[in-house]
Give the backbone structure.
Amino acid sequence: MNKTIIGTAIITALLTFFVTRQYFTPNDEIHEENHAEDNHESEMNFSQELMDEFGIVVDTASGGNLERTIELPGEIKIDPDRLAHITPRFDGVVQKVFKQIGDRVKKDDLLAIIESNESLTTYELRSSIEGIVIDMHFTKGETAQRPDHFFAVADLSEVWVNLSIYQKYLSQIEIEQTVNVIYNSENHSVKGQISYISPTLDERTRTATARVIINNAEFKFRPGQFITGEVIVDNTYCNIVVPKTALETVDDKPVVFTVDEHGIEPKSVTFGKKNHKNVEIISGLTLGQSYVKKGAFVLKAEFGKESFGGGHNH
């Protein structure tokens, strides 16, 4: 009987405590607690070790120049003034061949010896320029005749980039504009300037040609190689510029993952000008604020998991 009375008294006391607390706790305090929970329910905490493992890179929001570009297809061409077709002076039998395709030659290097059909005397065929043998039609013992037999020697230390300008872009492309010539899948590029724009359109493609002359001392470019040319038509300073790798979409809205002492959180942003690398942030990110510059797609995947409904610790 005594145990029943004591148990009833304890339960009554607990109920009284909780009811009293509900009625007498200030509303502001309850609101602040709920607000704090709401603020942090979407935040994630990652250790530095885990961030390094996933390739997550944090940077500070800052301004910079944003280039607006027009992307044009192009092809590497040999400068005709740097290409020599060396042919025999007289028809005759090839006695010796000294160079092959791919060989580097200097001016006056010996290419072949030919015995003339008329005089039966031999004469030498020498290179007229310094460069690389890119083509040849010479075989020992055969009869060499013009123009079928020749050595093609090209100086590739400087090459042309011929860009195709679509009609809709003609009014925006001008001589001396800067061009980023992208030459591989990693978006490696070199800069050059437009030195020539054709006055007529190609009858087949209906495009004009813009020429960029670039140094090729390291032989990064090969004639016949397709490239992409980004013509810079505008260059504007923006208060906040971030790489496109920082942008993700959450709930159909563009977001940037910000970083503070509480963790990592997606923030909705609006953006303005952009190019293939960077984008201007108009709102949602402030100067000096830390954000995830690279690896945001990993955070988006984590954020989408149901286990991240509340506080998230890793």
Notes: Residues 41-67+237-313 form a domain with the conserved putative lor/sdh protein from methanococcus maripaludis s2 fold fold (CATH 2.40.420.20).
